[in-house]
Amino acid sequence: MKILNLYAGIGGNRKLWGNDHDITAVEFDPKIAKIYQDFFPNDKVVVADAHEYLLEHFKEFDFIWSSPPCPSHSSFAKVRSVSNDYARGNASYKTKYPDMKLYEEVLLLQHHYNGKWCVENVIPYYEPLIAAQKLQRHLFWANFYIRPIEVESDNIKKGKRSEWEQRLGVSLKDKDLKGKRTDTILRNCVNPKLGLHIFNEAFKSEVQELF
Q1: Which of 81, 124, 157, 171 has its CA 20 to 30 A from that of 74?
Q2: Is 188 within a domain?
Q3: Which of 44, 49, 8 is nearest to 24 (CA)?
């Protein structure tokens, strides 16, 4: 089976999928792509814009997972934009438009793709524009039903970084990363157990039209 893993990061969602499939991972940041390749040497890793790669190659795959950037949709982004920090001149907290590439991908896959697919993002500060399934701290848009599953909390603000690495089954200690960037990479990982559960759901359940 040919799988496309978009915005791959270091591969938290993919970690427990095994090596029996032909997996292509797309990651924009070369350093993070290198870490992914180290973790999954059998995967094909492409350093590219995942949004554009999807549009150009979606018909080539049997299963597509996409995790577009989430900061512009998160409740934290809204809180920051009205905070005293922004009032004091912290430009990084400036109010931004929600990135509509998220919904562009959902609509593309809903209406133009024949395989199984899943798009993951945070629970936003607004009512989702397209209905989604909620698991843990994520929303999932998919063309199959995802049964609920209990997994340990993955709030990056709780616990030490070493505990997070142990929970995710990874180590970034020897990687060329610094401070908060390491925390962000870990925070962006989908729990591997949740990633495996969704992968299994895609191929155990009959496709259901949810939207």
Answers
A1: 171
A2: yes
A3: 44
